[in-house]
Each structure stands twice: as C-alpha cells, then as structure tokens.
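Lab manual, section 2.4: Encoding a predicted structure.

Procedure: take the sequence of the chain (310 residues), apply the prediction step described in section 2.3, and record the output as structure tokens. A sample record is shown.
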Amino acid sequence: MRSADIKQKVLEIGFDLVGIASANQENYPEADRLKAWLAMGYHADMDWMTNPKRQNIKELMPSVQSVISVGLNYYTPQIHTQDDRTGKISRYGWGRDYHRILGKKLKVLSLWLEAQGQNIQTRFYVDTAPIAEKAWAQRAGIGWIGKHSNLISRSHGSWIFLGEILTNLILEPDQPHAEHCGTCTRCLDACPTGAIAEPFVVDANRCIAYHTIENKSESLPANLALDNWVAGCDICQDVCPWNQRFAQATTIQDFQPYPHNLAPNLLELTVITDQEWDRNFTGSALRRIKPDRLRRNAQAAINANKTAKD
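Recorded output:
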C-alpha cells in the first residue's frame, strides 16, 4: 500500500499533519534520553513514565512495522487575562476533550486501513498508551521537539494534538524533521519556575503544568510561582516565535473555548462545588483535575499572589 494514499486519507478525515516512520531499527535514541531524565528524578511522581514499553514500541505491538503520526491544530486566538483575580487554564483544555475528537478520527482511519487488505493490523492511541509520541512525530517528519519539550511544526507552531496508528504494514517512511530552535532561549527565559532545566529537558518538579494537573498532594509547594495558572500552563508556548509567527485558528469547532474556561474567578474556584465542577467540565480533558485539586490550585494561586505583593 502506498504511503501517499494513506496520507491523502488522513487529510480527508480532517487531520492537519501526517507523517510515517519505520518501527524497524536497532535502537531508539529517545530511550537513552528517557532513561537519563528518569535517573534525574525529573518525572516527579509520574511513575507511569517508567513503563518499559515507552522505550521500545515493539513491546507495545510486536507486529508493528510502521508508525503513522498525525497532528491536529487546536489553536484559538483568545488570550489569557492578566487580572490577578482571574485564573488561567491552558489552551488545550479550553474546549472539548481532545482525546474524543482525535480518537474518533483515528478510529475512522484505522478501520479504513484494515479494509484495504487481509491481515492488516492497526492500533491507535491518543495519550492512551506508553508511547513516546513526540519522538515518533519528529521521526515521522511532522515537527521537532523544541527546547520546551513540546513538538513544533513549521506550519502550525506547537498548538497541535498528536495521535498515532501502529500498523503491521511496511510503508515508505518520511525523513525525520530537523530541529529549528537555533539559539533561541525565550521559553527558558520566560518560565517563572525555571522548570526547563536545560534546553529540551523539563523538570516536572518545578513545572506549573505538572503541579496543577498531575500533583495529587493536598497542597502545592509554598514557593511555587503559579502566575494564576490553575490548570496547566502555556507560558513556554506563548513566547515561542514559531507560535507567534505561524499559529493559525483551528477549524475544529469543538476546540472553541467554553466561556467559563477563559476567565474563571479565583475566589469562586476555591469554593466550587463538586456539582458545579461536574457541570462545567463535562466532556472536558480537565476532568482529570478533580474538584478538590482545582480548589487547591485556585487557593495556591491566591496565596502566591499575596506572597509576591508582600
């Protein structure tokens, strides 16, 4: 089967980016980088990052021959308010849950692929398996991993969701994408907590996104400069020149922001009820931030503001 035919189908289904990588190689360079990152303890308490399948895709699907990497633009032009009374939510969580949007499209592609011949096997993922998706996306040529550790596309910047289809088809691969960050250090300079320990390496222990989403502790570090973020953080992407020059509005209506996600009142979030949380975040990727943690994040942001003014 021709790679060109698959790519055409991917675009017809509605994805913005597509590339193909061969799963057959003697070693996986990202495995050594991942091991070094884990050895430094930069994964904090995200123990799921230690899954050995993340270091060898053959353990995830023994018959895999090719990885089809896809990207979907989610950028919307609204900007975050700088009002101290208002919380900030990462752009990825403004609208409908991206897992559902990409998952439906990948299922269509997977079924189409399997219908093209006998014994064609596929598996598709959207953050649902231990797979180094950014490394595979770079290998498939749709972008490169920037110094802030997000994948950057020359056509859309880094405001892209990634998904993959693993298949036993032997397909013509694309050339891996070259890195184009150059000498730029804007993301490192802008991070208020110094979470980008060095170019291309993020220390989750200091990352606002980690603490507001993944950290399950009853309280957040007292010295964490949250800058009003209560769900994720977009600072390193907001300052990226590739985003400032090439970001373009998504065509996916489901990614348009829910009104209550654009400028939530911090004080109101500190007392949001479980019922209000359930209503506001129905069908949202932010449901992983349970109501008690959202209240915690909002209170921590208020406390951080008070500390900064004292």
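Check your result against the sample. The chain has a mean pLDDT of 95.
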